[in-house]
Amino acid sequence: MEFETVVKNRRSIRKYQDKKVESEKIEKLIESARLCQSAKNRQPWQLMILQDEEKDQVAQIMLDLFETNVYELPGYMNSSKYSAWTIKSAPLLILVFREKDEIWDLGDYVSIGAAIEHICLEAVNLDLGSVWIRDTAYTEKEICTYAGYPDLELVSAVAIGYPDEDPKARPRKAIDEIVIKKKS
Q: Per-domain residue ranges for the chain?
């Protein structure tokens, strides 16, 4: 697929067909992240591939936040419920970790964002859909413990599978709204 087409066709997919992602495609997704540029070539991402009950357990950890919390949670956290249901719908979940290192926070986060975008664009190229999930932040400690890496930082997750929806492109700002000029 032409790169411009891949970029234009990328959408956040939250509904997936009940169809496994082939191991060859999973390898290509990982390879796309591996080849990504990173600040000072640190390559700070560590990826964990979860399927079936393992990824469903991550979703359940996210849902448990609402079932076990005796305090009223802020409204912005409600999206975590929908993200958990998306994870359950998807056949594949990639957890994206990094080693905690305050000196490298900004560079690592930007680099990891680029690696995640490589995965999302490769997904389109492979006729898959994906959505980048940050709602794992509210249960990061529990998910890291479940995954067996309590000393790592869970930066994000990516749900991937064969799309069962075809959402329209969401509105984007005009170029003159995102390109600024140097002030005198």
A: 18-166
One digit per residue, the tens of pLDDT, for the chain of length 184 reads: 899 999 999 999 999 999 999 999 999 999 999 999 999 999 999 999 999 999 999 999 999 987 776 556 677 777 889 999 999 999 999 999 999 999 999 999 999 999 999 999 999 999 999 999 999 999 999 999 999 999 999 999 999 999 999 999 999 999 999 999 999 9
Q: Which two tokens stand for residue 36?
A: 């990504």
- Render the burial of 136-174: b for 16+ CB within 10 Å, e for the rest: bebbeebbbebbebeebbbbbbbbbbbbeeeeeeeeeee
Tokens at residue 184, please?
């005198």
Helix residue spans in 69-168 (DSSP H) = 79-89, 105-125, 140-147
Structure tokens at 139: 């249960």
Q: Say which CATH topology domain 18-166 has.
A: NADH Oxidase (3.40.109)
pTM equals 0.93
Structure tokens at 7: 């970029």
